[in-house]
Amino acid sequence: MNEKDTTLLCVVLNKEDMVLVCSQVKGESANPVQSNFGMCDEEELRKIYKIKEVEMKTISLFDSIINRISTKEIVTL
After folding, report:
1. Is Nucleus included in the keywords of this UniProt record (predicted)?
2. What does pTM read for this prediction?
């Protein structure tokens, strides 16, 4: 991943489905998101996802963001 990339596809699959999906995707596999997380501006992410300092004392920034994304998806389905 680099600054010029415009699209990122994130999925969770079992092994059988992963083989099928990967055969259809053009592009490169990226490292897991958490390993690339250090490339992001932490303060900007906290602002975007409205994460307060008190929350950071009990849960990681990565987990806070994942919780918000997954909760939003559940609510909008």
Report:
1. yes
2. 0.49
Q: Is 49 exposed, middle or buried (0-12, 13-18, 19+ CB in 10 A)?
A: middle
Residue 41 has pLDDT above 70, yes or no: yes
> Which residue blocks in 25-59 are alpha helix, DSSP H?
33-36, 42-48, 53-56
CA 50/CA 30 separation, integer angstroms: 27
CA distance 49 to 45: 6
Rounded Cα distance between 72 and 15, Å, is 27
Q: What are the extents of the domains in the chain?
A: 32-76
